[in-house]
Each structure stands twice: as C-alpha cells, then as structure tokens.
From TrEMBL, chain A:
Organism the protein comes from: Mesorhizobium metallidurans STM 2683
Protein's name in the database: Putative sugar ABC transporter,substrate-binding protein
Record's subcellular location: Periplasm
Any Pfam family the entry gives: SBP_bac_1
Keywords for the protein's UniProt record, in alphabetical order: Periplasm, Signal, Transport
TrEMBL record, chain B:
InterPro entries xrefs: MetI-like (IPR000515), MetI-like_sf (IPR035906), Sugar_ABC_transporter (IPR052730)
Protein name, UniProt field: ABC transporter, membrane spanning protein (Sugar)
PROSITE patterns: ABC_TM1
Entries under PANTHER family matching the protein: GLUCOSE IMPORT SYSTEM PERMEASE PROTEIN GLCT, TREHALOSE TRANSPORT SYSTEM PERMEASE PROTEIN SUGA
Phylogenetic lineage: Bacteria, Pseudomonadati, Pseudomonadota, Alphaproteobacteria, Hyphomicrobiales
Segments crossing the lipid bilayer: 28-49, 89-110, 122-142, 180-198, 219-238, 276-300
Subcellular location: Cell membrane
GO cellular-component term (any): plasma membrane
Organism expressing this protein natively: Mesorhizobium metallidurans STM 2683
Keywords: Membrane, Transmembrane, Transmembrane helix, Transport
Family from the record: Belongs to the binding-protein-dependent transport system permease family.
Length: 445, 312
C-alpha cells in the first residue's frame, strides 16, 4: 500500500502516533545519539547570537527540540547580517561578549576571528564521546568546510554549518527558443549570453552583481576558472596577474554586452528580481537564492529554471564557495553546553531540514548523500545535482584575510569602473596599489 | 535677570548680560551640577574620546597604539575622502536648493485661497511623515531600469529609459529627487508660516503705486519672508549634511563610490573596516566642516533679520 504523509489512513496514523509515543517514553530523539549525555548541562542558560537568514530561521523554528533534548534554556537573537557582524566584532573585541555561541560568515570573518582569538578550541570536545555523536567526524564535512573551520594551526574553532556554492541559474525556455545548450565552458557561456541578448525585446543573456563590494565574488569566482586566487599561499596579492586581468575582462564583457542597463547598481536582490521576470538568460550567484524561483507568487519562471554547475574555465573547473559556521566564544563560561548547541545545529536532522526547505546546504556529506533526505527535498532534482556537482569542484572564492570588506570594496569599485568602460588592467593596478597598504596594515599589531 | 545681592550670597563670579553685572553665588552651584554632568557625559566625553581615538592606530580585534597625526595625514592623501567630501557638499547644496525652490513656490500657491486647499495641503505634507528607509525601498523599485514605473512613464512620452540610481552620472540627482520629494513639504510649511505673518498694507500700497506681481514678490514678499527662508535653509542644511538612511538604503554609496558621502564612508571605515582611529579622524574633520558651514549660515541668518529704521 502506498503511503501519503499528507493523507494517512486511520491505521497509519495510529501506528505513527504509537511509534512517537514509544520514542518519547524511551527518551530518544531521531538523529541524536543515545551515547551522548545530552542532559549533562540541564538547567544551564545559553545566549546565542545568529545572523538573520533562512538558516537561522530553521534553528529558531526547532529550538524547542534542543531545549527539550538537553534541558538547556536558550536565549537566541537573530539580527541582519551587517548589524550582526558589527555587534559581534564590537562585543568580542571588548573581551566580554554577551553570548556563548556565535554564528559567523567564514568568507568574511574567519581570519579576523582567528587573529582576535575569539573562538574556543573545540577539538577536545569533538574527540569526547560523552559530548559528541559518533557520526560527527571531520571526514563527514566537505573539504571547504574544514578549511573554513580550522585556524592556521589546524585547530578546530567552529563547526561548519551551511555552504553556499555559486551556480548558474539558466532560463531553459529562452535557451530552447534560441536552440542553445547549457554552456560547459567560459567560452560557451559568453557565446550563449551574447546570442540570448536582444535589447529590443528587453532580453539579456546574463546578469550578476554589479554593485561595489557585492560584485567582487563574481570576479574572484571567474578567476578560479583561470586557476588563480587573489592571494598566493604566502599572502602576496596576485590581482594584477594575467589570469586576474583575463577574469576581469570576462566580467567586463559579460556585464557590458549581455547584461541589462543599470547593472552597476545591482546586488543579488536586483539580479534575482530581473531573472524572475523571465527576460534574463543566465544568473550567476549563490545556490541559496533558489527557492523563490519555484514560487509561483514570486516568479514568472516556475518550472523553466535550470540549475547548473559553474562552467569550466580555461584552466580549471571550480565553483566559488562561501559558508557560515557556528562556534563557541573563547570568553564563554559554558563552553561545553555551547558546544552541544553547535553540535545540534549541524546535526543530520537539522541539515536535512535546511536542505529540504531549500533554506541552505549543509556541509555534511552524509546529509547530502542520504536518499531519504534527498527524497524530501522540495527543490527540483537539477538543483540538488548542481549542489552536489558544485561540491565536487568547490574552492574558496574570497581570500582568508582580515580586511575582506576593504578587499571587496576596493576591487568592487574597480569592477564598477570596468562596467563603465575603464581598462581592466589599469583598474586592477590602481586597486592593488590602494589595497596593498590596507593588507599590510591588517597583519601588524 | 533678577539681581542677587552680595550681602545675602557672597559673590564669587561675575558675568555680563545686557551690560549689567550678574553675580552667581557658590551655594547655587549644586543646581548646575546635574546639567554639567549630563552635558559632560553626552557631549564633552564622546567628543574627547573621539579626539583621543583619532590620534590612535586602532582597529577592532587588534592592539591599539598611539599614532599622533598619522590618521589626519592619511586623510589628506585619501582620494576617496576628498571625493566623499565633494559628494557631501554637492548633495547638500542640491538637497537644500531644490526643496527651497519648490517649497517656496508651493507655499505661495497654498497661501492663496482656492477650493479644497486644506485637503490638498494635507496630501502635500504626507511624504514628510514617511519613514526614510520605507521611502528608499519604494523609490529603489521605482528607479529600477527594467521593472521601475519611472521608465515606464518615460516610455509613454517617448523618452528613452534612464538608469537613475544605477548610473554614476545620475545617482546624486536621483537621490536628491527623493530628498526633494520628501522634504519640500517642510519648507512649504515654514514659508507658509512666514507668509501668514506678512502684513497686507505694504502690498495694497504697492498695488496703488502700480507694482506688478513679480515686483511685489521680489521687493516685498521675499524680504519679509527672508528670516523664515533662512530658518528653512538651516534646517534643511543640517538634515542634508547628516543624511545617511536614504543613501545607504538605496545605493550604499554606489555605483562604485559615486554617491558615497562622508557619512557613508565614515560608517564603512568605522563599522565595516573596524578602523576606529581613522574613522574618528574623519569624524573630527567632518565636524570642523559642519562648524564652518554653520558659522556661515548663522552669519547669513543675522543679515536676514528684519531691522527697523533705527537699525536695531
């Protein structure tokens, strides 16, 4: 007999209720190991600082489950990204933060948190079977996640929570109308974008972020296709290298010849709005922006969107990777209880919820590979394929330095100037001259 | 001020007010202390602390060290700072001039008597009541090159699409348009108050002498409402100089740095780059600029005051 969870039979309902009641009596929760003494810190109160996002919304939605599981009371606060970053940095640098658990954007804050010594070493907790689920092992996280979570000395400072791969959203209807296939290489990407562009019908082949700061990851993601990163392993800037210039030229070509007018002022929201109208061929951005595509109330392209892994560059195939993690503050006096919270937040159950709701992509491979979890994903299969495919070619897209925001701002202005017609090599040279002293100052003191 | 007799209080301080000596007794000082504490805590201390931070090399998360005048010297050679100062002055000038012009015209119109005047006045002042961030979000959508209503309206009359806030050349005028839309009613209300206080007799006399409408406005109305106009200029200048919310919500200083005012640059420096020392130096210099502008405006206000025939 087939089973429909939204329309169970009387017998199925009774069976389900009995199973849940039995689990409740046994004190078990699905996905949480019995070997861990979850109640060890019952009665403790934790303060948790989160970034407001669909990911933190998921945490907040299921918070009661953690409180019931552990007996720990949680005071959680979720503030918008910019404000949360400011608040956490100011509080952490004071030495007495008001929170025990902090949610951080790795691609912006990793080095800053390391240099400040703001996160506790949780390596010992991970090795402690009374504190850690046996399934929580380093090898279960995507490589990028562990790169983010460990400091320069290889010490684990946080648990990777959610990853954001950059993918290419493409309008299948527009592609079909022109008889074009999904681009496999940068060359094909440009050719497709140009073929799809028809300003007379207000149709454009490509869109991406053009707004200063927001646009820099677009350029660095393209740069990865030239097998180049903005800094080498010794921390030396490579932003005037031929590969960096080639990536900037590609960005300029796409944004000036195939993108809609006014793209210099586009952040992801404007680019997404444009794509949702059905007049844009391709949009390069994070995988987490997918849910509105399939929402008939917000989108004119429901069922017409393809989700593709970033095309191959001339020298490498790479998907720009960003992510956030969750860690215990070094100043916290309740580190072990705080660690339990972090562990719960990155648990398979929470990862499955993130993925199935399209709210985010967990770093844990066991979640992505679990057929039952995959069955429950509400997004199209091609989205999940793009997620898994991107994970296979994942590379960090932004340099791990303290002044990430200045890096994004300074090179962002250069990229904006390129959209206005400036020469990429000249702009990158000027930007590098401007950024080098900022970078030098950042590691002093 | 009422006299305080030396016999009762024991005089320690003397100041001059209206040419008369004023004496303050020591047992009255405790009454001044709460005010001094408040002023010290909310004005003097923050400023002293800002000055102190401005002479330090201090980035959050890193150790602090004394930098002397280094931050100020950095400012002198920071092209982005000078560019943002220029944007601030341009934005302020336009955001004062346009509402002043339109607000004065609107006040002259609403000063006349016509049907539904009260209702229309009410409608006219409504933008002023809106929250700046909400205004910014609505206008951002209206300015959208593909989806915005403004380009649609332009297309109806055959004018090509514009990029508004999405183009470096048109971003400041577009932002000023929003500022003008929101704050013209304030100028209108101030000027309307001035017009209500203008006596009618000089106009009757001018009409008898054959003055036309323009001459009456130029030589009677304008001089008589000048003090009100100056008040409106001062309020608008202060508002425009410290404008942050609309610019930040609409462009974040972009495209590139085309609409980055000092407030935005200062905010980024202090709270995005966490460079507290440099941000403080910028705040100090901006404060000096504001004081200089205020001084000029106050001088102009003095000159715009009505004077009687004895010159008092």
């Amino acid at each position: 007999m087939s089973y429909n969870p939204f329309n169970p039979t009387r017998r199925q309902l009774l069976q389900g209720t009995a199973a849940l009641a039995a689990a409740g009596f046994a004190g078990l929760r699905p996905g949480f190991a019995a070997g861990v003494d979850w109640k060890r810190f019952a009665g403790t109160t934790l303060d948790v600082n989160l970034v407001k996002s669909p990911r933190s919304d998921t945490i907040l939605k299921y918070l009661a489950e953690f409180e019931e599981l552990t007996g720990i009371k949680v005071n959680a606060e979720a503030t918008p990204e910019q404000q949360q970053r400011q608040k956490t940095v100011i509080e952490l640098s004071s030495g007495k933060p008001s929170f025990d658990v902090v949610h951080l954007s790795y691609h912006v804050q990793k080095r800053q948190f390391e240099k400040g010594g703001w996160l506790a070493d949780i390596s010992g907790y991970l090795a402690d079977p009374s504190l850690t689920d046996p399934g929580l092992v380093e090898s279960d996280f995507a490589e990028a996640g562990m790169l983010f979570a460990k400091d320069g000395q290889g010490v684990l400072r946080s648990l990777p929570f959610s990853v954001d791969y950059w993918i290419l959203y493409w309008n299948k209807e527009l592609f079909e109308a022109k008889g074009i296939k999904y681009p496999e290489t940068f060359e094909q990407l440009v050719a497709a974008a140009e073929a799809l562009t028809d300003p007379s019908s207000n149709t454009f082949g490509f869109v991406a972020r053009g707004l200063k700061n927001a646009n820099t990851p677009v350029w660095t993601s393209l740069m990865l296709g030239y097998d180049m990163t903005p800094l080498d392993t010794a921390g030396k800037l490579r932003t005037t290298s031929p590969e960096a210039i080639a990536a900037a030229s590609l960005y300029q070509r796409l944004m000036t010849k195939t993108a809609p007018p006014g793209v210099t002022g586009f952040n992801w929201a404007e680019a997404q709005s444009a794509f949702l109208q059905g007049k844009i061929g391709m949009w390069l951005d994070g995988v987490g922006f997918a849910p509105p595509m399939e929402n008939p109330e917000k989108s004119r392209v429901v069922g017409k969107v393809g989700y593709g892994v970033m095309p191959k560059g001339p020298k490498a195939h790479a998907s720009g990777t960003f992510g956030d993690g969750i860690g215990v503050t070094a100043a916290s006096e309740k580190k072990e209880a705080a660690y339990l919270f972090c562990q719960w937040a990155v648990s398979p159950a929470m990862g499955a919820r993130l993925l199935q709701a399209g709210a985010g992509v967990p770093f844990r491979k066991s979640v992505l590979e679990d057929p039952k979890v995959r069955e429950g994903v509400t997004m199209p299969a091609s989205w999940l394929d793009a997620v898994v495919g991107s994970g296979n070619v994942s590379r960090l897209a932004l340099p791990v330095i303290i002044p990430v925001t200045e890096f994004r701002d300074i090179y962002g202005v250069a990229l904006t100037n390129m959209i206005a017609g400036a020469d990429p090599a000249d702009e990158l040279k000027k930007a590098t001259e401007q950024f080098q002293p900022v970078l030098d100052r950042s590691e002093q003191g | 001020m009422s006299a305080i007799t030396p016999e009762r209080t024991g005089v320690t301080t003397q100041t001059i007010e209206g040419g008369q000596p004023v004496r303050l007794a020591p047992n009255y000082w405790p009454f001044v202390v709460p005010a001094l504490v408040v002023v010290g805590a909310v004005i003097v201390f923050p400023w002293a602390f800002t000055l102190w931070m401005s002479v330090n090399r201090w980035t959050l998360g890193q150790s602090r060290s004394f930098a002397g005048m280094e931050n100020y010297l950095r400012l002198a050679s920071d092209a982005r700072f000078w560019e943002s100062l220029w944007h601030t002055l341009t934005y302020t000038f336009l955001s004062v001039a346009a509402p002043m012009l339109f607000g004065t015209v609107a006040a002259l119109i609403f000063d006349a008597k016509f049907p539904l005047r009260g209702l229309l006045r009410g409608v006219f002042v409504m933008p002023m009541m809106a929250t700046p961030v909400a205004v910014a979000l609505v206008w951002t959508m209206m300015f959208h090159p593909q989806l915005g209503v403004l380009n649609y309206l332009l297309s109806l009359v055959g004018i090509p699409s514009q990029e508004w806030i999405f183009n470096a050349n048109t971003v400041i005028p577009s932002l000023v348009a929003v500022e003008t839309w929101q704050w013209t009613p304030l100028v209108m209300l101030i000027v309307l108050g001035g017009l209500a206080s203008v006596p009618r007799e000089p106009f009757e006399s001018a009409e008898i002498d054959g003055a036309n409408v323009w001459q009456q406005f130029r030589y009677l109305t304008l001089p008589m409402i000048a003090p009100f106009l100056m008040i409106a200029v001062i309020i608008r200048s202060i508002d425009a100089l410290k404008s942050f919310d609309i610019i930040y919500a609409m462009t974040q200083g972009g495209p590139g740095t085309a609409s980055e005012t000092i407030n935005i640059y200062l905010y980024n420096t202090a709270f995005s780059y966490y460079d507290i020392g440099y941000g403080s130096a910028m705040a100090v210099v901006f404060f000096i600029v504001i004081v200089a502008l205020s001084f000029i405006l106050l001088m102009l206000r003095q000159r715009s005051q009505w004077i009687d025939q004895e010159g008092k």
